[in-house]
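Take a careful look at the sequence and tokenised backbone pasted below. I need to know what the token row says about the fold.
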Amino acid sequence: MTQHVINQIHVLISLSAVTYPFVFKANASNDFIYIILLLMVLYSYIILQGECFISYVIKKYNDPKYVAGTDISVLDDFSDVFKNKTFASYAISYIIVALVIGSFIALKRYNFINIYYIYLFSVLLCIYFFILRTPSLYNVYFNIVFMIYVTFILYKVIMTRHQ
């Protein structure tokens, strides 16, 4: 029962977070917070080897020997909420697409950085999610490059906020 409630909260947070740029008007303070949170989530994804922090905690709770990134394709929390693995997979796909488009919208309307950096961020984010489930040595190198770029974007966001 408790696990089901946690799964519902996880799905609700995920869906709410990715829809923010589509639902709310541009607001510099809110967009700043959204972008910072988005970048923190991306850091956690990279550090946990493609694992959502909440999913990782649930898996670790169920199996104390679980290692982050071992089985990121398991969608038990979303399947539990939607009662259907296929629909859960569609929901995850929607979240990824909405995250890429929504992050582009939020970064663009925050208007803190050259548009080319925003396009590059969006492309790198697409590549990240595309290769996420393909284990390879290239993923390690890409994750390093992606983390550096996410740090660059974070720096630009914070520095523009203080100008």
The two ends are 48 Å apart (CA to CA). The CA atoms of residues 36 and 89 lie 27 Å apart. The first helix runs from residue 2 to 23. The chain has a mean pLDDT of 86.
